[in-house]
Specification:
Blueprint lengths: L3 H12 L17 E3 L2 E5 L2 H15 L5 H7 L16 E4 L3 E5 H14 L8 E4 L10 H11 L1 H14 L2 E3 L6 H8 L6 E4 L13 E4 L2 H8 L4 E4 L2 E8 L8 H12 L7 E6 L8 H9 L8 E3 L4 H9 L3 H9 L14 E6 L6 E3 L7 E3 H11 L5 E7 L6 H16 L7 E5 L3 H9 L2 H7 L2 E3 L22 E5 L15 E5 L2 H10 L11 E2 L5 E2 L21 E2 L33 E9 L6 H4 L12 H4 L8 E2 L4 E2 L2 E2 L6 E2 L1 H10 L4 E4 L12 H8 L2 E6 L4 H9 L3 E5 L13 E5 L10 E6 L5 E7 L4 H9 L2 H7 L3
Parallel strand pairs: 4-5, 4-7, 5-6, 7-8, 10-11, 10-13, 11-12, 16-17, 16-19, 17-18, 19-20, 24-29, 29-30, 30-31
Antiparallel strand pairs: 1-2, 3-9, 6-23, 14-15, 21-22, 24-32, 25-26, 27-28, 31-34, 32-33, 33-34
Family: Belongs to the aconitase/IPM isomerase family.
Cofactor: [4Fe-4S] cluster
Organism: Galeopterus variegatus (Malayan flying lemur)
């Protein structure tokens, strides 16, 4: 066998890997570090400028901001084929970010690659494994104890392979990225669907699965279908109770949960300047709920102010110099344009059960009465990666302070999640945290907590119908507390605070009165708060671990008996034949998010152990055959049982299977476990009416076939008792449909066509069994 160094060299040549990270080359006009934590990695605006000039000359037209940043990171701008919505781009992202739940599988895959170090600056953030139970400090101590094995693995893997490590208690990945790593013009990928948060500071920040992160960390050009660009023109200005959150709640109502699929949402227009930098981040963050590839705002003085306040005035000065490349060209073309007049925009609240079900706050009470939704609010929850900035906490505290002045506290339970240790320390210093406690709130740990289902909720029983209001981003069935009868609504932090004080959905703070302790009625005034602290931010505790310069002696241990971590075995290669007589594991009815496919909450502890977490495969999906979740017919025994058990039975008996899905299958989180699990348990294809972008890519990466009905009506031709044969794989080619033979139990057959979006590289992944297998083949 060839020496290891030679294998790496071969891999680099075969895949076009750069021998060093491009950002380490000094910027010709100025040497400005990408972050304080990586002083020798520099921002390359000069390279961005050069690539933009090459592409603009080729296309001969004005460019959107999204195009400037994306095309400015092309691996080969002179020869790359560029057509929105059609071609696949080969890109060179500047950096990678991973949260702890997805980092486990990403780092396990990177270890399997055999490479010695990451090729781009990368970080791990411990935010997903901390369960909200008693309050910040106690919950953090408990999490460190329970998750010690996982945290040790991530810390040592980070040290071994050159990845920065943010310890538990640091804060939520996206807030840490905004405070330290995102900058105008950056191309950043993150293993979390809300990575687009960084668009608030003018970067193209895209959520991906762990296998995509591994490609970038390995120095391989990253592939992305050339996105379309949706323009959202903002006019007027925000005022009163209307907040940045209302912009994206309104957009979600317009575009729905799949309206942004395959597109970058680019905000522009005079109204942009009325929104704070962290407010822009809120809007970009929740753009994930409309299926957008990402969202972005043009560089402006609000971003400059935020960069300066977070210790990055040098980056702001450099961005000023290159500003023409950080804003859209005049006369650029958008594939779709939405216009929102901020002067006319009213406070919104979206839900329940879907983040695109939009209502003005003034109307939601009436709608709830009509629909039979519980009016009493059991819990109000503020914070999360979407709304946990200093400004968010300040506006909420301004509402709470008014209630306290009239002798009132929250009628509902009330929780507060700071976005980072810096935010926590600063709101403690400036008194906001105490005001929120005084009104009845509990300050939770700097972590995701209830937003992702990490909530040990005690006030209700499972199955009890109730309402909660949050400033989070997602409100799918069972998302926050695993109770399918919890009606979750998303809105701004200040509206959550007002509703928690009133205790009912019927309350409209713009028009309704509260009764003070003295019996007098009063109306809450619209909150006002500083977007940034007047003093400097208080950084709080130091929670960052630098990777050592010399990691040659660093060990990364994974016990073979561990129930939390498991080294990966390669998936089997394609056998060169058509897929015959596939059994249908489940035909899914209606919405099927990644939460339905691979639930979070208590299952997060198994994110590093593929076999154990596969016991949650599709347990939330509704079986069209009986209308039940986690109950499917075993085609051999004819007995109904849990989905994972049935899949394991088929795998044990050598029966390959397929899943049939509905529209926008796999929307929501970026979790690649929703692709790894079906592959691990013997799945071969997922056939749907349409896919969410990240999930479709994740399925391809793991050697599965994500296919769509050429005629969506063909979904109705397939029944759970049928068998399917997929033909045409020997001649598998981009743009060429595959045939599907539906074999009914009565002996009759039907033939339908299945479309796919595979390119040549992705077809090689399928043939090799996975993208990781293909990477290893190229090392030989």
């Amino acid at each position: 066998m060839a020496p290891y160094s030679l294998l790496v060299t071969r891999l680099q040549k075969a895949l076009g890997v750069r021998q060093y990270h491009v950002a380490s080359v000094l910027c010709q006009r100025a040497k400005v570090a990408m972050s304080h934590f990586e002083p020798n990695e520099y921002i390359r605006y000069d390279l961005l400028e050069k690539n933009i000039h090459i592409v603009r000359k080729r296309l001969n037209r004005p460019l959107t901001l999204s195009e400037k940043i994306v095309y400015g990171h092309l691996d080969d701008p002179a020869n790359q084929e560029i057509e929105r919505g059609k071609t696949y781009l080969r890109l060179r992202p500047d950096r990678v970010a991973m949260q702890d739940a997805t980092a486990q599988m990403a780092m396990l895959q990177f270890i399997s690659s055999g490479l010695p170090k990451v090729a781009v600056p990368s970080t791990i953030h411990c935010d997903h494994l901390i369960e909200a139970q008693l309050g910040g400090e106690k919950d953090l101590r408990r999490a460190k104890d329970i998750n010690q094995e996982v945290y040790n693995f991530l810390a040592t893997a980070g040290a071994k392979y050159g990845v920065g490590f943010w310890r538990p208690g640091s804060g939520i990945i996206h807030q840490i990225i905004l405070e330290n790593y995102a900058y105008p013009g950056v191309l950043l990928i993150g293993t979390d669907s809300h990575t687009p948060n960084g668009g608030g500071v003018g970067g193209i920040c895209i959520g991906v699965g762990g296998a995509d992160a591994v490609d970038v960390m390995a120095g391989i050009p990253w592939e992305l279908k050339c996105p379309k660009v949706i323009g959202v023109k903002l006019t007027g200005s925000l005022s009163g109770w209307t907040s940045p959150k209302d912009v994206i709640l309104k957009v979600a109502g317009i575009l729905t949960v799949k309206g942004g699929t395959g597109a970058i949402v680019e905000y522009h227009g005079p109204g942009v300047d009325s929104i704070s930098c962290t407010g822009m981040a809120t809007i970009c963050n929740m753009g994930a709920e409309i299926g957008a590839t990402t969202s972005v705002f043009p560089y402006n003085h609000r971003m400059k102010k935020y960069l300066s306040k977070t210790g990055r005035a040098d980056i702001a000065s450099l961005a000023d110099e290159f500003k023409d490349y950080l804003v859209p060209d005049p006369g650029c073309h958008y594939d779709q344009v939405i216009e929102i007049n901020l002067n006319e925009l009213k406070p919104h609240i979206n839900g329940p059960f879907s983040p695109d079900l939009a209502h003005p706050v003034a109307e939601v009470g009436t709608v709830a009465e009509k629909e039979g939704w519980p009016l009493d609010i059991r819990v109000g929850l503020i914070g999360s990666c979407t709304n946990s900035s200093y400004e968010d906490m300040g506006r909420s505290a301004a509402v709470a302070k008014q209630a306290l002045a009239h002798g009132l506290k929250c009628k509902s339970q009330f929780t507060i999640t700071p976005g980072s240790e810096q935010i926590r320390a600063t709101i403690e210093r400036d008194g906001y945290a105490q005001i929120l406690r005084d009104v009845g709130g509990i300050v939770l740990a700097n972590a995701c907590g209830p937003c992702i289902g990490q909530w040990d909720r005690k006030d209700i029983k499972k199955g009890e119908k109730n309402t909660i209001v949050t400033s989070y981003n997602r409100n799918f069935t069972g998302r926050n507390d695993a109770n399918p009868e919890t009606h979750a609504f998303v809105t701004s932090p200040e509206i959550v605070t007002a509703l928690a004080i009133a205790g009912t959905l019927k309350f409209n703070p713009e028009s309704d009165f509260l009764t003070g302790k003295d019996g007098k009625k009063f109306k809450l005034e619209a909150p006002d708060a500083d977007e940034l602290p007047q003093a400097e931010f208080d950084p709080g505790q130091d929670t960052y671990q630098h990777p050592p310069k010399d990691s040659s002696g660093q060990r990364v241990d994974v016990s073979p008996t561990s129930q939390r971590l498991q080294l990966l075995e390669p998936f089997d290669k394609w056998d060169g034949k058509d897929l015959e007589d596939l059994q249908i594991l489940i035909k899914v009815k209606g919405k099927c998010t990644t939460d339905h496919i691979s639930a979070a909450g208590p299952w997060l502890k198994f994110r590093g152990h593929l076999d154990n977490i596969s016991n949650n495969l599709l347990i939330g999906a509704i079986n069209i055959e009986n209308g039940k979740a986690n109950s499917v017919r075993n085609a051999i025994t004819q007995e109904f049982g849990p989905v994972p058990d049935t899949a394991r039975y088929y795998k044990k008996h050598g029966i390959r299977w397929v899943v049939i899905g509905d529209e926008n299958y796999g929307e929501g989180s970026s979790r690649e476990h929703a692709a790894l699990e079906p592959r691990h348990l013997g799945g071969r294809a997922i056939i749907t009416k349409s896919f969410a972008r990240i999930h479709e890519t994740n399925l391809k990466k793991q050697g599965l076939l994500p296919l769509t009905f050429a005629d969506p009506a063909d979904y109705n031709k397939i029944h759970p008792v049928d068998k399917l044969t997929i033909q045409g794989l020997k001649d598998f080619a981009p743009g060429k449909p595959l045939k599907c033979i539906i074999k009914h139990p009565n002996g009759t057959q039907e033939t339908i066509l299945l479309n796919h979006t595979f390119n040549e590289t992705q077809i090689e992944w399928f043939r090799a069994g996975s993208a990781l297998n293909r990477m290893k083949e190229l090392q030989q």
